[in-house]
């Protein structure tokens, strides 16, 4: 796995739209944050474009991402926001130069498309806050983003839950949004989870949708040789008038019970304010015990 060079003061971070639209005025808090860390900002041509929901046409978004990937002066690329649209451009982008000269690509939610594709190419990336979420991000969450970008030590310890599954493992961290992982199954962007630790999270889904997606992911072999599961935020789940009969914890527990691996629920990442940065592609130590859940990046 290639780890892109960590940033240093004076480096330039590009902000681009790969999915939903994002206006220049909205970018100001993110620009201020980067400048406070001694970094420079370069706004992509897609910032301010309006193509219905999207930040420009597919061709415009792909070209903007391509330019920033190939620009030697840009040291990291920050996706402005999620929503939907990254999968529409992934096959329009040439990763040839990027594979030889990787740089950090950052974001979450719909950016899982890029995280997964990069993982298949052997390049690490950051599951992190985005310019759209900066205004509501707590200071300690912003610090985890800075620490990851600058190569500082990164580790998390949170209280364990009664329904967590205990265990201690090491492996490469992969994953992201469940809906996106599900949508990538069978494509060249679908990740290999063998001997890895899988992070999953989602937002605003029906409980039976979560069950259906996870069963399909299971049938595609994602869980057969995985070493551990980290479940992030599972906010705003919906039920039908006739209840499904299980909540998100019960759904995941039932599907995973045969594998006898550590599982941590309600981890501090995903669609919530406490969205701490994860280095996808990094080797990690993951432990769930009676008191704590520990995740340490090596």
TrEMBL record:
Recorded superkingdom: Bacteria
Tell me which CDD domains the record gives.
Peptidase_S66
- Pfam families the UniProt entry points to: Peptidase_S66, Peptidase_S66C
Q: Where is the LD-carboxypeptidase N-terminal domain?
A: 13-127
Query: Does GTP-binding appear among the keywords?
Result: no
- Using the record's annotation, list all stretches that form the LD-carboxypeptidase C-terminal domain: 170-285
Does Transcription count among this protein's keywords? no
Q: Which UniProt keywords apply?
A: Carboxypeptidase, Hydrolase, Protease, Serine protease
Family, per entry: Belongs to the peptidase S66 family.
Put simply, this protein is called: LD-carboxypeptidase
Native source species = Flavobacterium sediminilitoris
The uppermost taxa in this organism's lineage are: Bacteria, Pseudomonadati, Bacteroidota, Flavobacteriia, Flavobacteriales
């Amino acid at each position: 796995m290639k780890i892109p060079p960590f940033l240093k003061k004076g480096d330039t971070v590009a902000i681009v739209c790969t999915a939903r639209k994002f206006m220049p005025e909205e970018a100001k808090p993110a620009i201020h944050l980067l400048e406070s860390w001694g970094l420079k900002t370069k706004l992509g041509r897609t910032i301010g474009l309006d193509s219905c929901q999207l930040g420009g046409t597919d061709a415009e978004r792909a070209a903007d991402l391509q330019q920033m990937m190939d620009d030697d002066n840009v040291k990291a690329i920050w996706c402005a926001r999620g929503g939907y649209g990254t999968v529409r451009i992934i096959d329009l982008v040439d990763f040839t130069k990027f594979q030889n000269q990787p740089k950090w690509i950052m974001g979450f939610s719909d950016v899982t498309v890029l995280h997964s594709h990069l993982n298949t190419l052997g390049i690490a990336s950051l599951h992190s806050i985005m310019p759209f979420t900066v205004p509501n991000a707590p200071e300690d969450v912003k610090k985890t983003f800075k620490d990851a970008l600058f190569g500082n030590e990164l580790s998390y310890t949170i209280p364990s839950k009664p329904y967590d599954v205990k265990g201690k493992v090491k492996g490469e961290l992969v994953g992201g949004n469940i809906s996106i992982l599900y949508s990538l199954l069978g494509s060249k962007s679908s990740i290999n989870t063998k001997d890895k630790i899988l992070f999953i999270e989602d937002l605003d889904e029906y409980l039976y949708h979560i069950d259906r997606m996870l069963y399909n992911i299971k049938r595609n072999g994602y869980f057969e040789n995985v070493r551990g599961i980290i479940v992030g935020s599972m906010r705003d789940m919906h039920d039908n008038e006739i209840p499904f009969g299980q909540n998100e914890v019960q759904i995941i527990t039932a599907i995973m019970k045969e594998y006898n691996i550590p599982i941590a629920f309600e981890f501090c990442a995903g669609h919530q304010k406490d969205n701490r940065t994860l280095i996808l592609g990094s080797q990690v130590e993951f432990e769930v015990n009676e008191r704590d859940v520990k995740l340490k990046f090596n």
